[in-house]
Design brief:
The complex is a heterodimer. In chain A, 80% of the residues lie in helices and 0% in strands. Chain A is mostly helical. Chain A folds into two domains: 22-38 and 46-113, 2-Layer Sandwich (PX Domain); 141-263 and 298-367, Substrate Binding Domain Of Dnak, Chain:A, Domain 2 (Up-down Bundle). Chain A is elongated, with a radius of gyration of 32 Å. Chain B has helices spanning 2-6, 18-24, 78-91, 115-134, 142-149, 152-160, 165-181, 189-237, 244-307, 314-391; strands at 36-47, 52-62, 71-77. In chain B, strand 2 and strand 3 form a beta hairpin. Classes of the chains: A mainly alpha, B mainly alpha. Chain A: This is Sorting nexin-4.
């Protein structure tokens, strides 16, 4: 059972000056980086966005907007819940102390030296292009995560535009209220009907604010999976890196074995500058050759052990990564289905409100 | 209501006694007693060496005795409608003649002969003729009858008769001269009230017209975005397995709501927008009618003022004054009665139009509600099935 004191200290940050809020977000970032590097086979839950993205017109892209701050707080809380409910990650000591230890946590994380274990971006990119035999499932997963990212981005962008337009429709109806009221002043029989209808139009116009605020939470649910796509890709990249490493090591071993053979039998099977120069300037002494052979044989033995362990590492990685990916898939399917259902529920609520308002308005109009 | 059958068209030089006119204006609009049915349809383009123009088919069905036949079909162009309107205004300066659609529409870059423009105009012309047919006085106007029944050449020749341009201009000049005096200072309270009403009404109806157009525009923008929204979910479903059905379900719901929104927009443009526009034009017409009444009063007042100092010539001009007084009384009564009728009609029109708007929106929300509820039901069934299968060992 874990307590969430860290969340409380987060909400304190809202009253504290601006930069303290950012520092706390940065501590979350540090935690996540640590987890990503330490557990590369795990699909690590993503953080909510730092800056407001996919905004529609009404919400400014203002990061200090209280609604945005609140939604981000909820997002950070959600992140911690995800980590806490993960069978592997929840056992991590650094995570535990993030929740329980306020002072000196940063130093503690840095002392683990996890940054050294991190793979360079360049290395990873190189591996992605050059790897020859990655596990097909990871290749497919990478394509899936690209598609997921692309389609959710598109969806969020259009949703924002739809929200903007919907806002416009509702708010323009608000103009009816004042005109009806002013018009009712010069009418005798129509006056009451107009006036009360105008009131309902005001209610209608005002109702959109809550409706769209609720929809933001739905958008946040989708955004989480947009960011999850990146986490998936990270696991795929790690696999590619390990596989590439393995392939390079195997290649290296093969070439060393070849060199060994050439030296031992004295035949030069492949063209080499060394071979030519030795032909031209005379061969090495038997002692020199002996020394070289010995070095090579040692290297080969080392290489074979390394290859064995790399192979094992690779297979373990694939096995554990794929287990987490299956877990993730189930979580994703469940969550997204729930999100879609909640979207339907929101639409239904919006329709019911609309029906109520327009029923009332109709009654007023029919009495004019 | 026998006085009704006796009334024929009359011109300003032939005022009928006030009492007979008052009886006439007590006639209530009763649609069941309608005996004149008019439709305007079938716009056709005509190309001559000089110009291109559109004619509309005007079909009239009637049981009235004064019509030689019971059915007529003629073709009229916009110019002909303009002629009819000006004849009616001439004959009945203080009656509220219904508005004609405008000659051109400046705002919406609409081509003069675009299908949309022609259709909007056709509907407005249809309305125009029917409003005249429903009017207790105007419906018996002779020029109206000729408009409905005469063949093209007959109408042309009839148009050429009647007071010439110069005499019409003369009337205008006199009217302007008397309007300088106003007729405002002796204006009865009723008409000042009417004037105040019309000023405010005109303001409000113009604002409403703008609001309605704005709503239509916003709904159209919303519709355009929605068109793109549904298909994204379908696209997404292609890369999913387990949630593909849910995504497709949402896509289908959004598409249905999109269609519903299109219907809502259509309702607005077919009903609210034309009515509000008509009343914008009406408010201008009403202001004109009030001015003309003032002018008629002004004629009387200026004559009276002119004679105020000439005691000796009073007898000579008493007949003229008497005629002018009659004219003013007629005009006032005509306007008062027509005003009440117009207000009733306006109330009726507004009530039914806005009720229709509300019904339109209700239908929209009810359709969307049904769509989403059926989607939800399908999802919940699925969840229940899942839960059940988890229970069974």
């Amino acid at each position: 059972v874990l307590s969430f004191r860290a969340v409380e200290s987060q909400s304190e940050g809202q009253c504290a000056p601006v930069d303290s809020l950012w520092r706390r977000y940065s501590e979350f970032e540090l935690l996540r980086n640590y987890l990503s590097v330490t557990y590369p086979h795990i699909v690590v839950p993503p953080l909510p966005e730092k800056r407001a993205d996919f905004v529609w017109h009404k919400l400014s892209a203002d990061n200090m907007d209280p609604d945005f701050v609140e939604r981000r707080r909820i997002g950070l809380e959600n992140f911690l819940l995800r980590v806490a409910s993960h069978p592997v990650l929840c056992q991590d000591k650094i995570f535990y102390s993030f929740l329980t230890q306020e002072g000196g946590w940063k130093e503690m994380v840095n002392e683990t030296g996890f940054q050294l274990k991190a793979d360079s971006r360049l290395k990873a990119l190189n591996a992605t292009f050059r790897v020859k035999n990655p596990d097909k499932r990871f290749t497919e997963l990478k394509h899936y995560s690209d598609e997921l990212q692309s389609v959710i981005s598109h969806l969020l962008r259009v949703r924002a535009r739809v929200a903007d337009r919907l806002y416009g429709v509702y708010k323009v109806h608000g103009n009816y209220g004042r005109v009806f009221s002013e018009w009712s002043a010069i009418e005798k029989e129509m006056g009451d009907g107009l006036q009360s209808a105008g009131h309902h139009m005001d209610v209608y116009a005002a109702s959109i604010d809550d409706i769209l605020e609720e929809e933001e939470h739905y958008a946040d649910q989708l955004k989480e999976y947009l960011f999850y796509a990146e986490a998936l890709r990270a696991v795929c990249r790690k696999h590619e890196l390990m596989q590439y490493d393995l392939e390079m090591a195997a290649q290296d071993l093969t070439s060393k074995k070849q060199q060994c053979e050439e030296l031992a039998t004295g035949t030069v099977r492949t063209f080499s500058l060394k071979g030519m120069t030795s032909k031209l300037f005379g061969q090495e002494t038997p002692e020199q050759r002996e020394a070289k052979l010995k070095v090579l044989e040692e290297q080969i033995q080392e290489g074979e052990e390394q290859l064995k362990s790399k192979n094992l590492e690779g297979r373990d990685f694939v096995k554990s990564a794929w287990a987490d990916i299956e877990r993730f898939k189930e979580q994703k399917n469940h969550d997204l289905k729930e999100a879609l259902i909640s979207y339907a529920v929101m639409q239904i609520s919006m329709c019911k409100k609309g029906i109520q308002v327009w029923t009332n308005a109709k009654e007023c109009f029919s009495k004019m | 209501d026998t006085s009704l059958a006796e009334v024929n068209s009359f011109s300003p030089s032939m005022p009928i006694s006030p009492s007979s006119m008052i009886n006439q204006y007590k006639f209530e609009d009763e649609p069941e007693l309608r005996d004149l049915f008019i439709t305007v349809d079938d716009p056709e383009s005509h190309i001559t060496a000089i110009e291109t123009f559109i004619t509309y088919r005007v079909v009239t069905k009637t049981s009235r005795g004064e019509f030689d036949s019971s059915e007529y079909e003629v073709r009229r162009r916009y110019q002909d409608f303009l002629w009819l309107k000006s004849k009616l205004e001439e004959a009945h300066p203080t009656l509220i003649i219904p508005p004609l659609p405008e000659k051109f529409i400046m705002k919406g870059m609409v081509e003069r002969f675009s299908d949309e423009f022609i259709e909007t105009r056709r509907k407005a012309l249809h309305k125009f003729l029917n409003r005249i047919a429903d009017h207790p006085t105007l419906t018996f106007n002779e020029d109206f009858k000729i408009f409905l029944t005469a063949q093209a050449w007959e109408l042309s020749s009839h148009k050429k008769q009647g007071p010439g341009l110069l005499s019409r201009m003369g009337q205008t000049v006199r009217a302007v001269a008397s309007s300088v005096r106003g007729g405002v200072k002796n204006r009865p309270e009723t008409f000042t009230e009417m004037n105040d009403y019309i000023e405010t009404f005109s303001q409000k109806i113009n604002v409403l017209d703008k609001i309605a157009h704005r709503i239509y525009k916003e709904e159209r923008e919303y519709f355009n975005e929605m068109k793109e929204y549904g298909p994204i979910h379908t696209l997404w479903s292609a890369s999913e397995e387990d949630i593909a059905d849910s995504l497709k379900g949402v896509a289908s719901c959004i598409d249905k709501c999109c269609k519903a929104t299109e219907k809502r927009m259509a309702g607005l443009s077919e009903n609210l927008l034309p009515i509000l526009h008509e009343y914008v034009l009406y408010s201008e017409i009403l202001m004109g009618v009030l001015k003309r009444r003032d002018q008629i009063q002004g004629e009387l007042d200026s004559r009276v003022d002119a004679l105020a100092n000439k005691k000796t010539e009073k007898d000579l001009f008493s007949e003229e004054i008497g005629k002018l007084e009659d004219k003013v009384e007629c005009a006032n009564n005509a306007l008062k009665a027509d005003w009440d009728r117009w207000k009733q009609n306006m109330q009726c029109d507004m009530r039914s139009t806005f009720t229709n708007v509300a019904e339109n929106n209700l239908r929209y929300y009810e359709e969307c509600l049904a769509t989403w509820e059926s989607f939800l039901a399908s999802q919940r069934v699925y969840l229940h099935v899942e839960e059940d299968s988890e229970d069974t060992p």
